[in-house]
Specification:
It is a single chain. With about 150 residues, the protein is of the alpha+beta class. It has a single domain, classed as Aminopeptidase. It is built from 4 helices and 7 strands; from the N terminus they run E-H-H-E-E-E-H-E-H-E-E. A 7-stranded mixed β-sheet has the order 1-2-3-4-5-7-6, sandwiched between helices. A hairpin with a 6-residue loop joins strand 6 and strand 7.
Length: about 150
Amino acid sequence: METTVKVRRYRPSDEEAVVELWSQAAKLAHPFLAGEGEGIREAKMRDIYLVNAENWIAETPEGVVGLLGLLGAEIGGLFVSPQAQRLGIGRLLVEHATALYGTVTLEVYELNGSARRFYAVMGFQETGRHPDAETGHELIQLRRFA
């Protein structure tokens, strides 16, 4: 069964669906972060990231399945609903970012093995590392050329 996926700009009316998707995906991706997907981190998602980033939604007829948050040419967040992972939605959103900005960068937690494998397949290359100021966990800086 093929599902039609479209990418569109985030609208404030998407907030509840997007926060739920983000919470589920973030808990799965970041089990090493205490309180991930809830509490203070959820408040930041609602009050900072959804307000200040250039956000794009991947949507099927069933609803929102992906979120791409851009800060210029930096992918500040890429989240796909756990039920929709491995269906090409992450790839579609990365391709959307590169179509908009050409070369894109991002940071990924070293402990997030599945995301690291995905970004390697997508052609991202490591450009540096540093500890995350908020969590202390190692972040890997990546770049993908258009």
